Amino acid sequence: MDPHETEPEGYNVTAVEAWIADNVVGLTPPFKWTRLQGGHSNLTYRIDDPKGRAAVVRRPPQGELLPKAHDMSREWALISGLGPTPVPVAPALGFCESPDVTGAWFYVMGLIDGKPLYSPADTEALVPEDKRRTMAWSFIDVLADLHALDPDDIGLGGLGKKEDYIGRQLRTWFRSWTSSAGDADYDDPQAHDLRDFLSANIPEQGPARVVHGDYGVHNCLIGADAQVVAVVDWEISTLGDPLADLGYALNQWAEPGDDREGAATMVPGFPSRAELAARYAERSGRDLSLLDYYVGFNWWKSACIIHGVYARYCAGKKSAEGVDMDNLRMRIGQALDLSAKALSFR
User: Fold this and answer.
1) What is the band of 42 on the pLDDT scale with cuts at 50, 70, 90?
2) Handedness of CA 129, 116, 322, 173 (dihedral sign)
3) Do 215 and 79 share a structural domain?
4) Least confident of 71-75, 113-117, 168-172, 217-221
5) Tally of structural domains, the chain
6) Which of 110, 137, 166 is the last residue of a domain?
7) Is 168 domain-assigned?
């Protein structure tokens, strides 16, 4: 396909290619453009030049955006700051702050030879059973390595407020819950009770660290050796309590016995969440005696997030075509129940 005949969504190909030619070393237009899966609806494309060199270009979706959503400058700062560290990220190649080029900021990063895992089929295809423990240790070690970094030392000390991460999150997501309750026609008293319990029992936060915010196998590129070769989708990353990041990652790690059909880690050969937590504790030296709090907090937060998505569908702000609304509604209550279970709260 000639990219100049059919424009990739959100990109003025001629203008973007001219900008890359002037600002990114080692890439020569014209490019072949290929849409990539995932990425929080950001418009992400692989670009291949005539000499066989490839990169990735990424910009926000078109249309009106929520404040702080799809922040390309944040992602650029993170991959630039983390590039020299042990945390694997795609090389930062170029950042365009002029919306005149294609209507929004965008950046170019190196292409990494790895793939994320979205489903059991992905895992079966990409990670042999005898390599799954290796992959799991790489997954948790990378998170521990991220949390070992002092943000000030890598130029990321201004990424966000350092103090009261859990408190700020509780306030933000409870506002989301209450503001969505009308459109969703769903207001579970358990969401309120859990918020009160979580607010009254916030653990003392240690030194702030970079928290990814959505760390899971869907945002890790797995290489041919079953190692994490890059962590992607840094757009909601901030500074905060690293144990909250760990709790989220463990919640995403489905294991046999969970009601999580379709999760990438539901196939044989992976260690349990408890084993991952023990590995993190050993590598990081952190005290995980209050881990259940962070697990419960994240399930409560997930309930609020799903509730907000459900409300937008109900209000017609997003097309619900092809969406299993009953399942989505069920998942809100399921997340609240998992929060209560983790917190031994009834």
Assistant:
1) confident
2) positive
3) no
4) 71-75
5) 2
6) 110
7) yes
Neighbour-count burial of 275, counting CB atoms closer than 10 A to its CB (0-12 exposed, 13-18 middle, 19+ buried): middle
Of the CA atoms within 13 Å of residue 227, those in its CB half-sphere come to: 9
Span 199-210, pLDDT tens digits: 999 999 999 999
The model's pTM: 0.91
Domain boundaries, position 138: 120-342
Q: Which residues contact 327 (CB under 8 A, 6 or more apart)?
A: none
Looking at the domain assignment, is residue 3 inside a domain? no
Domain boundary among 110, 142, 158: 110
Tokens read off for 144: 């521990």
Is residue 235 assigned to a domain? Answer: yes
Measure CA 178 to chain center.
24
- Sign for the CA dihedral angle at 143, 204, 332, 65 comes to negative
**Is position 297 within any domain?**
yes
H or E element in which residue 220 lies: strand 220-222
Pick the closest to residue 92 from 155, 15, 170, 49 (CA basis). Answer: 155
97 and 136 in a single domain? The answer is no
The pLDDT of residue 67 is above 90: no
| Distance from C-alpha of 158 to C-alpha of 333, rounded to nearest angstrom | 36
Tell me which DSSP letter residue 217 carries. G
